[in-house]
Amino acid sequence: MLDQFRLDSGIVTTMPTAIALLLMACAPDKPDASPEPTPPDYVGVAVCAGCHSDEYERWRNSHHDLAMQHATDDTVLGDFDGAGFRYGGVESTFYRRGGNFFVTTDSASGALVEYRIAYTFGVEPLQQYLVEFPDGRLQALGISWDSRSADEGGQRWFHIYPDDAVDHDDLLHWTGPLQNWNFMCAECHSTNVRKNYTPENDSFSTTWSEINVACEACHGPGSAHVAAAVAPGGENSSVLAFDDAARWVMNMTTGIAERVPSENTSLELETCARCHSRRAIFSENYVHSKPLADTHRPALLTEELYYADGQIKDEVYVYGSFLQSAMHGAGVSCSDCHDAHSLKLKAPGNGVCAQCHLPAVFDVTAHHRHARESTGAACVNCHMASRNYMVIDGRRDHSFRIPRPDLTVSIDTPNACNGCHVDQSAEWAATNIKEWYGGPPARHYGEIIDAARRGTVGASKELAALASDEQMPAIARATAVALLATNADTSATVTLESAAIAEDALIRMAAADSASVLDTPGQVRIVAPLLRDPVRAVRLAAAGTLLHAPPESFLQSQSEDLLAAIDEYRKVQALNSDRAESHVNLGVLHALEGDFSNAEEGYNRAVEMMPDFAAAYINLADLYREAGREDDVDASLHRGLAVLPGNPDLHHALGLSLVRRGDYGRSIATLRKAHELEPTRARFAYVLGIALNSTGSSDEALAVLHEAHERHPGNRELLFALSTISRDSGQLTRAKEYATTLLALSPNDPSVLQLLTD
């Protein structure tokens, strides 16, 4: 639901390059296109039910049917009989009047205000409530109803951020942009949603065909299908159908069923993934049957969303997990386990797994090592560990992984064994797994991702190997390619060349992003062809990288392709202009065009919309810096720090501004503050170390840099600084040690070779 979205729901891409010459180029003339056929329209669930009564009856009262409803006596589950709830010093009250439901709670200003509940949102294990504002925005209350039974601890009001003390000034407050239904939730809780945001008056007139997730949300608009169905000899094939006549045949040798035929099952998965994924939306023109990445940017296995081995951390809505699974690799799709209409499992308990996994082999103590019918004998408890979100909403990890307590020991990821055996150590669990099933276990891609996240020496070579390993899940390979952006060595070009022509769009998208670390000729050679990629997410990523290149780097046809991608980028920002992130993006684009006034306006608009958005203040400060207005740089950053006094990026940017103005005393203090607020950020430590050394504090500089090097042993900036400062301080042995390590990372770098000969 609402609380699991973060700023990655918008697309913030910095594009610092001069593109004015490209934008002045004329697009080639195109012949008049043939008239487009009239697209099919949405007809509604009542029409579908006329012919598909069985599917309709299974869908009724499902979570899709009840995803969103008008607030009525029949739909509201919470206690609105004068119930009170206290949170963060605010006493909220829920009550009824005149057939409507109301809450008195804290407003955006902090004052208690009465609001009418317009809609319910979800049904179990919790129900949220939406308030409609005069400007058309719907906001979800943070106070929610626990709809579980009283025996389960339910039938109570609770707050989805119980430990955060979210007040009216907090970014997560219910009146803020992160709890806004129009952007955050509507697409996945209703059918055929059009956000219809009007930036001129900052209002919404959001529409839907049906309030809930109905037939056409998955199958597409049905008017042509209905017309064909009633016509003599009509073809009923104009909506998306998923029955591909596949069947599963048990392999009695392995005890695991095999798909026959084994054709691609991505159609159903990509359809479900539109909502069951962590992704950013960049187009409402979703076409059923097209790849998800043509209208959305799916998240990779990033550190804020997933543990290094790919287990769920933040809520990621299944897709990214399932892509990692052996099930996906074998051709399993969503409806093999779930009824697509009722959403229920196809069999209770272990029965759903027994469809493909022979019980005589797998549902026995010799396999699971637990007493029959016990908690430990349930397949899902070992292979689909659960994690709670929004306090009580348990979500199972759909990567279907083998428990790996050895990875808990080596890279500190969770494991299913200790999820139950909380009184035992991970070493204990790993020993038992080894005794039961043998060992040592195979190397896991999580170990490579963990090493890359920490910046260890040699991470780039392992990332390259993972990226090229076609036996590995594509999302893990794409993540490896993405991590090359911070772990690239001289061999990265070869890896990115291969990734840019990979079959999977996620890998191509990651290649386009990471190619930004290459020199300009390398970027153009590898990424320019991706400007014509059939998948829009790849084209947008390619544009973001190639905007760094001077216009003269391109052939005429490449310039035209880039202009087309820039136009797509503008449409993304227009769609999401209700978000501060998009105004920052447009500000960047205006700045690159040399349009200072509109760039400044875009950044200030972002600040107005989301005062907690540090990037807006920093981009505005960069704009002033480029214009030589250093006093305005200082003012912008202090404006941000007044709202976000603990933001390390703002402190770091202010420290750099003070360095440029020669105020070294204040700059050191400010850079030190940024480093203290986020000591794991290698860049902050590097800049502080350089600043300390330049003011004569070489010993402290070395201490700061060495501590950061311990965290990021493969970081080139840190190694180069440590080597040069150690050399200049007379610590020649240590200087050569750092230089030798650096040479292993960059064997052909003449500056590194020079370090070893000095």
Polypeptide structure, described:
The protein is α+β, with helices and mostly antiparallel strands. Among the domains are: 45-215, no CATH class; 248-404, no CATH class; 444-546. Helices cover 44% and strands 10% of the residues. The protein contains 37 helices and 17 strands. Strands 1, 2, 3, 4, 5, 6, 7, 8 and 9 form a nine-stranded antiparallel β-sheet that branches. A hairpin with a 5-residue loop joins strand 4 and strand 5. Helix 19 packs antiparallel against helix 20 (459-468), helix 33 runs antiparallel to helix 34 (698-711) and helix 33 packs parallel to helix 35. The protein is globular and about 85 Å long. Residues 1-31 have low confidence and may be disordered.
Short summary of the structure?
With 758 residues, this protein is of the alpha+beta class.
List the helices and strands and how they pair.
Blueprint: H1 20-24, H2 45-51, H3 53-59, E1 68-70, E2 83-87, E3 90-97, E4 100-106, E5 112-121, E6 126-132, E7 138-140, E8 143-146, E9 156-159, H4 181-184, H5 186-189, E10 197-198, E11 203-204, H6 215-219, H7 223-230, E12 247-251, E13 256-260, H8 266-273, E14 279-281, E15 296-298, H9 319-322, H10 326-330, H11 334-337, H12 351-354, H13 359-362, H14 365-368, H15 379-383, E16 386-389, E17 393-396, H16 405-411, H17 416-420, H18 426-437, H19 445-454, H20 459-468, H21 474-487, H22 492-499, H23 505-514, H24 520-527, H25 536-546, H26 556-575, H27 580-592, H28 596-609, H29 614-626, H30 630-643, H31 648-660, H32 664-677, H33 682-694, H34 698-711, H35 716-728, H36 732-745, H37 750-757
Antiparallel strand pairs: 1-5, 2-3, 3-4, 4-5, 5-6, 6-7, 6-8, 8-9, 10-11, 12-13, 14-15, 16-17
Helix pairs in contact: 2-3, 16-18, 19-20, 19-21, 20-21, 20-22, 21-23, 23-25, 24-25, 25-26, 26-27, 27-28, 27-29, 28-29, 29-30, 29-31, 30-31, 31-32, 32-33, 33-34, 33-35, 34-35, 35-36, 36-37
